[in-house]
Amino acid sequence: MKNIPITKQALVLRTDFSDDAGWESLCAAIQQPVGEFRAYVDFLSDSQYDGLTPEKLLTLIDPNSNHTFIFVVDRTALSHPEHPILVIDLFVELGREFRVIPSEMWGIENNLSIANADFADFADAVDPDGIFRGFPELM
């Protein structure tokens, strides 16, 4: 299996190929603006990564990559009703992970891409089921 390619923007990697329509629908949801915000990502759908585990993925990250995180569309993301995408830390706590619903990806991508927030800021704010659905509203 070849290394994960270096991309210009944050990467969304497909690792489940059981539902092409689901993948296309999820890509559209990720690209959907939320107000004035959107996630700036590149999508990679290459069947050689079918079934790739997070552990194996970590061994395929190019040492020259400047990405500090990666989004993964796996079986859970395609089959769960909320389509929570896996987010994996590639920088501080290598391999730490959590899930995010598509409508909240923009905040993670925007803030982590410019180092405005840390991976832990989002990972520590997940709901009890491990899914980030946004920060609580301030009163």
Could you characterize what this model shows?
By secondary structure, the chain is of the alpha/beta class. The chain has a single domain (14-125), classed as Rossmann fold, CATH 3.40.50. The chain has five helices and six strands, in the order βαβαβαββααβ. A six-stranded mixed beta sheet has the order 2-1-3-4-5-6. Strand 1 (10-14), helix 1 and strand 2 form a beta-alpha-beta unit. The longest helix has 12 residues, at 20-31.
Keywords:
about 140 residues; alpha/beta; Rossmann fold; six-stranded mixed β-sheet; 6 strands; about 25% helix; about 20% strand; globular
Question: Short description, anyone?
Answer:
The chain is α/β, with parallel strands linked by helices and 139 residues long. Helix content is 27%, strand content 18%.
Largest sheet: 6 strands, mixed
- The CATH topology name reads Rossmann fold
- Write down the overall mean pLDDT: 95
SS elements, strand count: 6
Report, as a whole number of angstroms, the end-to-end distance: 49 Å
Give the % helix: 25-40%
State which percent range the strand residues make up.
Answer: 15-25%
Q: Could you name the CATH class? A: Alpha Beta
Question: Based on the structure given, which CATH architecture is correct?
Answer: 3-Layer(aba) Sandwich
Supply the helix-strand structural class: alpha/beta
Regarding quaternary structure, how should these chains be classified? Answer: single chain
> How many discrete domains?
1
How are the strands of the biggest sheet laid out side by side? 2-1-3-4-5-6
N to C succession of SSEs: EHEHEHEEHHE
3D shape: globular
> Helix count?
5
Q: Give the uncertain stretches in residue-range form.
A: none
Q: Measured on Cα atoms, how large is the radius of gyration?
A: 14 Å
